[in-house]
Amino acid sequence: MSLATLKVAPGFMPYMPKEYQDLVEKGPYGRQVKVSELGTFKEILEEHPMCAGCAMTLFIRLSMIGFPNPEHTIILGTAGCGRLALTQASIPFVYGNYCDTNAVASGLKRGLEIRFPNQKKDVVVMAGDGGLADIGFAHVMHSWFRKEKFTTIMLDNEVYGNTGGQESGMTQKGMVMKMAPLGKRFEKMDMLGLAKTAGVAYIARIAPTNPNRVVSTVRKAVMVAREIGPSFIQAYTSCNIEYAIPTPKVLDDARQVEKDRYGFLEIMTDEAKAYLEQIEPKKGAKAKEVAE
Ligand SMILES: Cc1ncc(C[n+]2csc(CCOP(=O)(O)OP(=O)(O)O)c2C)c(N)n1
Ligand code: SF4
Predict the structure, then answer these.
(1) Is any atom of ligand 1 closer than 6 Å to the C-beta of 136?
(2) What CATH code is assigned to 48-286?
(3) For residue 237, which atom of ligand 2 is closest to its CA?
(4) Which ligand places an atom closest to the C-alpha of 51?
(5) Residues lining ligand 2, judged by CB closer than 6 Å?
(6) pTM of the model
(7) Domain extents for the chain?
């Protein structure tokens, strides 16, 4: 959605809701907003019906600040908690069936390249660990092997949150969930390793403890997908309901989990690294591959 699409005829503007006027006049379109500017511009996502304190919402909100060109971005989502917020944002949202997000995103991205040869359109899949690592696993892997040029962001709350607490492939071994009373019997899936094997150009693991880092990571992932090849972010976005994390402790939990087992990690191909250094010399130089 470009700003031109968002604007109404000047005569109508005074009759539009204040929220809408603010979005047109003070939205983040056509410029790169920063975390430090939060509160001074109209965000793409403000109201949503997700649980109070849900870290997933925080991550989504920051991701939208990171999108390099929100007016030319389309989000692909599906059933799961994240879509409750994603559908409230001022960014076109395509609701894929539960599992086919990456197949739909592949077709959409290819179609957009044909339809808009002179305007880059960014396609971003944002869905839960159940939607991407379990039921949508095959589509995710094939989009990666085929080098489809879009970003996949896994909102990894390590559970099926929206349906009340079933274990997912991304749940840790041994976890007992409301609807998995025997405890998880196998290890958390290594989606980062699988992404690397499939040749994903930029891969990151992140927890939402550092807003600037979330923003820059999302930006890098989208830019790499735009020019080089698929990108993948695995984001720890705790479910405070299913994991019984008191709302005021949500960020403490994220910091602890980050320290214990979810440290920031970037893996990228040489081509992606060279490209990032070219577009953001200082930041690109800092971005190093942390793990094999
Ligand atoms: C094909 C299909 N199977 C199952 C469902 C039911 N369903 C809706 S949301 C959901 C779980 C969502 O878990 P996850 O993807 O991890 O996202 P979260 O809600 O945890 O953010 C399931 C199983 C569905 N909508 N479609
Ligand atoms: S159920 Fe969990 S993941 Fe879903 S909105 Fe609530 S806290 Fe967030």
Answers:
(1) no
(2) 3.40.50.970
(3) 3
(4) 2
(5) 50-51, 54, 56, 81, 157, 161-162, 239-242
(6) 0.95
(7) 48-286
**Cα(111)–Cα(150) distance, integer angstroms:** 13
By most ligand atoms within 8 Å of CB, the mutation choice from 51, 56, 83, 98 for ligand 1 is 98
What are the C-alpha distances in Å from 79 to residues 43, 101, 123, 267? 24, 10, 18, 29
Distances (CA, A) of 66 to 7, 8, 71, 136, 177: 23, 26, 12, 25, 33
Q: What is the pLDDT of residues 49-108, one digit of tens each?
A: 999 989 999 999 999 999 999 999 999 999 999 999 999 999 999 999 999 999 999 999
Mutate to test the pocket of ligand 1, among 76, 156, 162 (most ligand atoms within 8 A of CB): 162
